[in-house]
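Subgroup meeting minutes
Present: P.N., E.W., G.H.
Scribe: E.W.

1. P.N. recapped why we're keeping a running log of single-chain structure predictions: easier to compare across weeks, and new members can see raw inputs and outputs side by side.
2. G.H. added today's entry (310 aa).
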Amino acid sequence: MANDMAIDEKLRDEAAHWAVRAGDPAFDDWEAFTLWLEADPAHARAYDAVTAAVDEAAACVASSAPANDDVSAPPRRRRPWLASAIAASVAVVGAVWAFQGERRDLYTVATPAGETTRVTLDADTRVDVAGGSAVEFDRKDKRYARLAHGQALFTVRHDAAHPFEVRVGDERLVDIGTVFDVASDAGGLSVAVSEGAVQFDPDGADVRVSPGQVLRRPAGSDAYTLTRLPAEQVGEWREGRLTFEAASIEDVAARLSRATGIAYVAAAKGEGAVSGSILVAPLRKDPAAIGPLLGLAVRADHGRWVIGAR
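Output recorded in log:
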């Protein structure tokens, strides 16, 4: 029974969500709305129930208010469901306001592996997006970005009244007058700073990452490390160079693939640690050259290059 109630609650929330969105004059996602309605007859019933409850509650509220010349009218006996219907009406109306107030006008800049692009947000703020990466921006707020996956270098004009914010999954980064590099992939999250500072998770861990530092947090972990990093290495991928320091082979393969557009894969999980600095351009001509450069075993396998420890 408890599980059924949870399902009903979830369905009612979904229906209320669509009621809020469809009530917005700017709503244009009718195809997705129709697919949701047609996916299950219960969806349409739930949507009808939510909208009917809102309409009826609003009508009852209006009709229950006494006219100015009818102050002696006896109070009406409300039906048991009226209070919850009114509550639903208030909740949906409130949700409409919240949804419209918080809604962002997002667009995504995505790059194929092996290519980079630059997004200029204003005269003093730009974002370099690495290969095989995707970043969301807000047309209404040029002080916001979300790294969906991959890597990006942020060169940000600091504004104490409206700091630049970067979202990475559930994490929030806030600039303090900054040039900083953010990477997020299967291996985890890293934030490296060359100028200014970044406040990592200001509402939680609240860690300051200063110039010449890199914060790393492995995937699936809340623990992080804060270590030194030469400032000149921050964003060096823009000039076609990659530097590895005690990196796992999986991390090396992922970064090589993003930078070159060549499919590198790790021979086995958990192998490492790889250190060294390389130029990317020669690998485009000879993908196997990564072997002697970093002391790795390399072999071709159906269009991929498998790298592993020697």
